[in-house]
């Protein structure tokens, strides 16, 4: 199941972005709104402060007017001047009752309290203002004589004072007769009722705090709620609030930060110095709650809009995420199927956007992959040169046929192009490839069905045929060879090519693919030995094939560990009447396979590429043995055989010469024997190698003469020293006249060419006499001695009577 991580992440990212944006917007608007409310409240509080100050000023002027009337009363002046205390008190009380004042005070010119309705003390602030007012009055009297119209009226002095734990607004005016004889003061009480009236006018709560010097502050009057008043009382009782070194505004800020920290309230301190209130703190406070409550509906509307916007955004984002994720998910599913090798699904592309382009590109890529895999599959199952099925496909076809009809018989036939590698070396790659192409085309025309013929490997082709008896198979094979060996025209050149055929029949020769192929190849190997161009597998050949495989495997170990030995067969010189030379013959006895004949392991060494190592081993052993016999003063030469592969090895002559120089061996004691067939494989190359060896002083001999394909002209070209008549002509020499004729002509031919002649296969006295009469130079055979090891030969040659005739 495809994970939805991309879709979820897309939704979370977009929803988070919208949420953060809405949150920032709401917080910004709410913050701006709150700031606006606070700013407006502060402005209104400032206005309230001015209104409050103006109201106190108006009340002060009212008191001033009333006190001036009293101070100008003649009887009141006379009573003060005559110190008629009862008259003064009566006048003060009556006047105060008329205007509704609560406090009446009479002071001496120096500020001493003469009469008072409340226990008060003139403060330093009040005395200073009275002095200033008196100086102004004197200055006004001095100017009156110069310009009476410009004389100023007496100046009043008013203050906010605390008496008997109550706060009063009091005004003092001078009493003159004509000089200053007293100060009369009238005052209104500032109580809760008056504070509420002021609150109704200013719109702000008013609080008066008594803050005398060196005394604790006390709350006098306040329009705040009882809870806030109790909180305020707790705050002003603290020592830091009663610190006179701290400015009033800082104390008010402390009040706000402590008492009203959790309240929606702002506060403004009134400058009490302007009001003559030196020891009184006046606070104007306003609640923000009402203003804030007015914006609650707006905030709710904004919050509702934000929630709706968020919900709408979530729906829109979900739709967008789905529309984006769906084609991507489809593309992922297609890609996963493609990764599993399923290219059957085609992605529909109705969209014209980037997804449509991507889907179209994916379809094209899928088609390209299908086409490429089809070509790769075809190439993996077909030969690149002939376009025929290759080894893998024909093997699959064999398996299919066995599985489809396990009881039915069919034939697996292998056709081999003989000596193709030599042909390739001679004519080159291009011409060789053209030959293979034409061979494949002919086989297709014969089979009539392309899948029944294949190129198995380089020079081998395979055919699958219907049920045929072995006799019919031979006939069909010969017909096939007749057709296939017709001349080929390549690059305007007519070429004749030979073939061999090996066949295996299912299920007689194998019930599985591997057995059939292996046994068909075993049959074709037998065909290569000259036992018929068409060969059908025979029972028992598999065991011989397994033995060959074992021999090939054991050959490496034998070479690495010197498990070969040399036997030596004497050659008797008729002229000298003694043994002058031996032939070194290679022997191998394996601990499991027993004795292995050279006729068996030499071809395997040639096929496996080990013949070079084997020849070098024999050559070194021969040189070693020559050195040993020379040290023993046994002047016996040694002949050794070279294979066809040795003659085609361009490095071999130089290696032999290097060994000879290293061992300092006299080359006259060494003879190399070569066969006619080996020389004729590549006469030019063989001639080049033989000339190098002959020039260095090594003797050369043609072995098995009479069984090959050499002509007299070819023999004349080769730098050989002797001819060895094949034993097939010598074994029955005393019984077969034809063999005698061949031997006579060969001896005469050799002598006429200046060559010595050796007859091998001498096994009786009669043959010795005939050969001696024919002038043969040297004899070799069981009659003289069988091949023996070096130690046995050394004993034999010492005991042998050289002077005695054979």
TrEMBL record:
Annotated NCBIfam families: GGDEF
CDD domains reported for this sequence: EAL, GGDEF, HAMP
Biological processes annotated in GO: signal transduction
EAL domain mapped to chain residues: 548-801
Residue stretches spanning the membrane: 12-32
Domain HAMP as annotated: residue spans: 322-374
Pfam families attached to this UniProt entry: dCache_3, EAL, GGDEF, HAMP
SUPFAM superfamilies in alphabetical order: EAL domain-like, HAMP domain-like, Nucleotide cyclase
GO molecular function, one term: cyclic-guanylate-specific phosphodiesterase activity
Protein name, UniProt field: Signal protein
Domain spans labelled GGDEF: 408-539
GO CC field: membrane
UniProt keywords, alphabetically: Membrane, Transmembrane, Transmembrane helix
Classification via SMART domains: EAL, GGDEF, HAMP
Alphabetized PROSITE patterns for the sequence: EAL, GGDEF, HAMP
